[in-house]
Amino acid sequence: MPEVLERPTIALHGIASVAGRYVIGEQPTHPGINLFACRLRMIASDSLRLTAPVIPQMGEQVTTSFNSFGTLTGQVTRQFEDGFAVSIEHDAAGRDRLNARITSFSEKLWTAETDRRAAQRIMPSNPRTVIARPDNWSQPCLIVDYSISGAAVSAAFQPEVGEIVTVGRVTGEVVRLFDFGFAVRFFEPQNADHLEGLLEAPDEWRDVMRRTFKAV
Fold it and tell me: What positions does the domain PilZ occupy (predicted)?
């Protein structure tokens, strides 16, 4: 019998600059119900890890989509306080294609010029935070990006335009809805040097998340 060559696993870690989206389950997509934004933290030819607003159950199917890596489907294999890991389901040809995309992306990290449009909005280093309403209702959310005047947010609900919400500790008004979330305009322009800290979740909320999802 011919020798079967094992295909190498190529992995890329710490990709905090890659934003995408994911769908939980196989049902039609509905923003705020099973369609959300996410940030890629690690990708390999057989697995990936996301920072995400909604953490699926273990074993649940998830389909992710990233411009640089395409659409990838798999099952949740691990939960973290800020997201989850997925075991990618594809054949040998799909694995090879993903390996090539990972290699190409890693090369571009060293050669690509900064996108000036991206500089206008900032991707926070800790994108998972909490969103609240005036009636003290709150839940986890993910900040897609932000500026001194507002933020794009993804969460397990779709508010009404005009609704008042607080992202982290900054309050504003929902001004637009889109497929994986909504835009919040802050009531006042924020100090650029302090804004990211204000958008982070309160310490007590993060402590609860750490106790709930303990990474082994």
Answer: 115-198
Range of the domain at 81: 11-117
Residues 51 and 92 in one domain: yes
Q: Could you read off the pLDDT of 69-91 as tens digits, one per residue?
A: 999 999 999 999 999 999 999 99
34 backbone dihedrals φ, ψ, rounded to 5°: -140, 5
Q: Is residue 146 part of a domain?
A: yes
Q: Are residues 32 and 112 in the same domain?
A: yes
Q: Is residue 6 part of a domain?
A: no
Q: What is the pTM of this model?
A: 0.85
State the Cα–Cα distance between residues 81 and 131, nearest whole angstrom.
Answer: 16
Longest CA–CA separation in the chain, Å: 71
| Strand ranges in the chain using DSSP code E only, listed in sequence order | 11-13, 19-24, 35-44, 47-51, 61-66, 70-80, 83-88, 128-132, 138-147, 150-155, 164-167, 170-178, 181-186
